[in-house]
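FORM 12-B: Structure-to-Sequence Request
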């Protein structure tokens, strides 16, 4: 693997936004393209992962580099 390739590969799966979660969900989000995450009302949105697992949609989008 060429020098820096691991970094480039890692950047492809980096979250597009800082982690956030909802008071009403049992998972967190970190991708601005996640439909579930975009529908969280501002008064329910909290900063951070809060120890919750990553949303399956976010995980898929991150893996696909979207």
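FORM 12-B RESPONSE
SEQUENCE OUT:
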């Amino acid at each position: 693997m060429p020098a820096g390739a691991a970094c480039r590969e890692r950047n492809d799966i980096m979250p597009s936004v800082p982690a956030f979660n909802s008071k009403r969900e049992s998972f967190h989000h970190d991708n601005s393209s996640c439909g579930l995450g975009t529908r969280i009302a501002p008064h329910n949105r909290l900063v951070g992962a809060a120890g919750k697992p990553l949303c399956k949609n976010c995980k898929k989008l991150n893996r696909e580099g979207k």
